[in-house]
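Q: For a teaching session next week I want to show students how multiple molecules come together into a single three-dimensional assembly. I've collected the sequence lines for a complex. Could you give me the predicted structure tokens for the whole thing so I can convert them for display?
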Amino acid sequence: MKRFEVLLPLVGVAVLLLIWSLTVWARLVDPVLLPSPMSTFEAMWTGMASGKLGVDFLKTVERTVYSTAIAAVIAIPLGVLLGSSEKLYRSVEFLIDFFRSTPASAMFPLFLVLFGVGDRTKISVAAFGAALVILFNVAYGVMNARKTRILAARVMGASRIRVLWDVMLLESLPQTFVGLRNGVSLALVIVVVAEMFIGSTDGLGQRVFEAQQLFDMPAMYAAIFAAGALGYGLNLLFLTIERRFVHWSGR
Amino acid sequence: MARVQPAETVDLASPVHDPLQRTAPHVTIRGLSKRFSDATIYDNFDFDIPRGKLISVFGPNGCGKSTLINMIAGLFPPDAGEILFDGQPLSRIKFGYVFQNYREAMFPWLRAFDNIAYPLKVMGLPKAERIRRVEKIVANLNVKIDLKLYPYQMSGGQQQLVSIMRALVVEPEILFLDEPFSALDYEMTLFMREQLQRIFVDTATTTVLVSHDLEEAVYLSDRILLLSRHPARAVEFVPYDAPRPRTLKTLSEPEFISTKAHCLDIFQREVRKG
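A: Of course. Below is the structure for the complete assembly, covering every listed component.
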């Protein structure tokens, strides 16, 4: 029995496919709105292998990775700096929380004015949103470093800089990864939205939107699933990196 | 003339200047005061810690047992007063500190070996020397733990043992332990008491142990410092001279029982005063 437990997550998938197939078979929904699983996966396969979907997929990956990387490069050092002094963090906490709560999509018009309609706008809005999430998590990770651990380093004679480098930075890593996972998810959301609307010619958002405009439902569903797979994959990637490098997390 | 003052000549020779046999106190505490927002924990507190002895600090809850060693070890500053080690400030000496909460005092991202070596790294010793020093202390203490493990892969007792080795690796002049065994189960506590006793017998390092367990405090100590409720006074500094190594048999000897009973009497008197 135990051997089959690893297959449990597949049960939900199988049930969903079954209900979907039955719905299509029984014609409960207009077939134009809901194509069969087979035709959807066929559209996905041909789209990824030889069609535009594969190109758009890579374009979205590229934008998401760029924006997350930019966000991380800015937000991690800044988060460490802010987190190392609680007073400093408290003085900017409201600003961070305010902009963290502002929907990044509301910033599009502003960034369009600043950066034009190209990739720079999409990437910078996504980076803006992700950076605040990462910043907030890194700063909290540093601030919540175990007091005992810091004291332990202090009584062994470690200087403030050494404590920051040897203890606080490592202590903040689990929380930093929480920030990175949330940040990459948010960046993907923003990139896909940006691709749908602001004068885009490629990307998954554009693919979904175009398929819908052309009433090519299998292609639309295929693009949605591709976006879902991308989001899931990015999250999994960061989880794997975290398990590898932050082996003490949660222990 | 030379025959008139032989005693003085002898006095100036070995015993007095051998640090292990010198009778002057190791640590002198003068006029120590500490207030927390709701209470005065120490008010003009004076005390001398003797050299090369293992002393325990015992007293009612919240009387400032840990506060005392934390101030001596510089974890936080006193409001007033002076603490000197052979006349020198803390910054000039090497000391070791063992926390009650080993889980939070170890560095989980470092293997046990590197945890023990960490204070040597802070001191700026080269890597080869760090490895040599850690291997030496492991051999001296006859420790049989796989030091390639990370702390979270070890039992509580093993972690605390690693933590004690980390404190000892710098060859400290004085060792502080803040309720080091209180998070361990009884079996492990008995084992760790023997380890600590063995370390003390081997190194004769001045050791200050805060304990909430009177049996443990008496069993391990040369002297037991009994504190009053805050503001804390040294009510008595009880000697206990049973030879080492002490064993479980020691616990049933009349001298142990009477010393423990005496300490308990004083303790209860102090508790009732509050």
